[in-house]
Amino acid sequence: MAANQANKLFSSLKLKGFFASRMPVADEITLEQRSTYILPTKAGLMMFGVIILMMVGATNYQNNLAFLLTFLIVGIGLVSTIFTFRNLQGLAVKRGNIDSVCADQTLAVTVHLNSQSKMDHLTIGIGFDKKSLFYCDVSATEGASISIPYKTTKRGWLSLPRIMATSSFPFGLLKVWTWFKFVSPVLIYPKPIEPPAAADSIGTDNEQGDNKASGNDDLYGLKSYQPGEPLSRIDWKAHARERGVFTKEFVSYQSSDLLFDWDNYQATEPELRLSYLTYLVIQASHNNLEYGLNLPGNRVPQSSGERHLNNCLKALALHGLE
Known about the structure:
The chain has 322 residues and is α+β, with helices and mostly antiparallel strands. The protein folds into two domains: 22-188, no CATH class; 198-318, no CATH class. Helices cover 31% and strands 31% of the residues. The strands form five sheets. It has a five-stranded antiparallel sheet with strand order 2-10-9-5-6. It has a four-stranded antiparallel sheet with strand order 1-3-4-7, with no helix packed on it. A four-stranded mixed sheet has the order 12-15-16-17, covered by helices on one side. α5 runs antiparallel to α6.
């Protein structure tokens, strides 16, 4: 029994290796015969059974009209095979721009489709598996674009899984499909998690600490509630989570810039540290603040703007990864 299971496993791996060797891997792919497969659908198998019965009946009763109808349906089936198979041939697939997202968010994978054979490609299904396909039509003169959602799980470089292109046009009797894969990876940022107290994570490049003053400009952190403080500054979210009663502390930054430091969370797991720092970097960017990031072996100088945010998020996403 063990030998039989080993033989089945070997055959399965050998078959997968055969299909994988024929699968195109690139950011721009033109689908061709070598990697395209075709089989009858359930409706096609049912039609094949009906043709067999019609042929048996026509032979038994020597009915010329029955023979004519049987051969006509067979001819339609052969023509359908040609049209169904050609519906994927000459279809150019190109990877579109894919924006990076944070872990546990849904990535929008953009796929551009164009006809290289100067013919219409109708009812083309694109997806990561046969259960979640998105359909579109590609005309001979105009291309089409389709966005496929993909749920991310962890930070770092993500190699996209293989993508399926399929069609049952024109009669749904046959199904043609192919697999392809984009070669360029996508960078996934750490999942942002709000730290328990924002004040613990904010440092400065000024050891004297004279970069802030009491004010109403920006949220600096949380502190324990003192009787007599305004109720409008109470952090009701923390109170609802039964973390205690805290009030929001606002400051006006004057001279030095913000510095988010890895060492401010020494009692925290590395992945959670990255999530905390990711949250703080995103919040500082949304508030149009100048900030810096200090990681072991990597320091991002103080700056602001979208490019600076992307540099900080990239440093966080790749920290500790080979």
